[in-house]
């Protein structure tokens, strides 16, 4: 007797039979539209899945990639946008920004064999190799399946609330400014003492990250 595929597959970092990185790469094995919504998206993380993305886009002009990111310097690498735009010869790639503290980790493919991955892992090398992460992978026969439809509808609503990422959005000072605004908004929810203790280190860190994220 052949065991049926599990309804939910757990994804971990290294100590699991199904790794998050492998599941993310496998999203691009079939045709459709792939949605990547990641609170933190570094170039090192992108480079690990880049070949799969390029093959996906080249395999069929009907395939599309939709990416929603936080545009701040500590959340997203401008090199990713530049590389995707450079390979978007047939207008298959759409990049969106959402500036309100994006912290989502949701990865979805519609089409003939839809898949949804949701959990704690961002698209970063740290998530792939070091952090203790836990995500779940749902594989169903239709995007209209009750297990997948709510996620697809949620992504659609998020896209409607987002705006297209522009080249000026990934200019270094603009990204640092977005990071400062994000941290300022978060600070309003913290006790004053915590804000004072954290303000200086955070500002210094943002300046450092603004430089580092040009290379990661």
Look up the CATH topology. Endonuclease, Chain A
Alpha-carbon distance between the two ends: 48 Å
Tally of individual domains: 1
**CATH superfamily name?**
Endonuclease Chain A
SSE ordering: EHEHEHEEEHEHEHH
The percent range for helix content is 40-55%
Q: Can you tell me the overall shape?
A: globular
Uncertain spans: none
Q: State the CATH architecture.
A: 2-Layer Sandwich
Q: What fraction of residues sit in β-strands? A: 15-25%
Q: Largest sheet, order of strands side by side? A: 1-7-6-5-2-3-4-8
Account of the 3D structure:
By secondary structure, the protein is α+β, with helices and mostly antiparallel strands. It has one domain: 2-Layer Sandwich (Endonuclease, Chain A). 41% of the residues lie in helices and 17% in strands. The protein contains 7 helices and 8 strands. It has an 8-stranded mixed sheet with strand order 1-7-6-5-2-3-4-8, sandwiched between helices. Strand 5 and strand 6 form a beta hairpin. Helix 1 packs parallel to helix 2 and helix 6 runs antiparallel to helix 7 (192-212). The radius of gyration is 18 Å and the shape is globular. The protein starts with 8 loop residues before the first strand and ends with a helix. The model has no long low-confidence stretch (mean pLDDT 85).
Q: In short, what is this structure?
A:
By secondary structure, the chain is α+β, with helices and mostly antiparallel strands. The chain has helices at 20-26, 43-59, 78-86, 125-129, 149-161, 172-187, 192-212, and strands at residues 9-11, 33-38, 64-69, 93-97, 105-109, 115-119, 135-139, 163-164.
């Amino acid at each position: 007797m052949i065991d049926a595929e599990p309804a939910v597959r757990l994804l971990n970092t290294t100590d699991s039979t199904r790794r998050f990185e492998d599941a993310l790469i496998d999203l691009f094995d079939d045709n459709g539209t792939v949605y990547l919504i990641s609170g933190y998206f570094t170039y090192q993380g992108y480079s690990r899945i880049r070949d799969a993305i390029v093959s996906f886009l080249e395999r069929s002009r009907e395939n599309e990639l939709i990416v929603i990111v936080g545009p701040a310097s500590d959340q997203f690498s401008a090199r990713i946008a530049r590389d995707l735009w450079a390979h978007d010869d047939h207008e298959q790639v759409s990049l969106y920004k959402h500036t309100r503290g994006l912290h989502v980790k949701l990865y979805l493919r519609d089409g003939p064999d839809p898949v949804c991955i949701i959990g704690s892992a961002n698209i970063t090398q740290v998530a792939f190799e070091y952090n203790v992460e836990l995500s779940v992978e749902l594989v169903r026969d239709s995007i209209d399946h009750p297990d997948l439809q709510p996620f697809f509808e949620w992504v659609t609503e998020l896209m409607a609330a987002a705006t297209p990422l522009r080249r000026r959005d990934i200019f270094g000072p603009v990204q640092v400014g977005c990071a400062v605004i994000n941290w300022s908004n978060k600070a309003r929810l913290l006790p004053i003492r915590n804000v004072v203790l954290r303000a200086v280190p955070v500002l210094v860190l943002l300046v450092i990250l603004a430089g580092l994220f040009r290379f990661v």
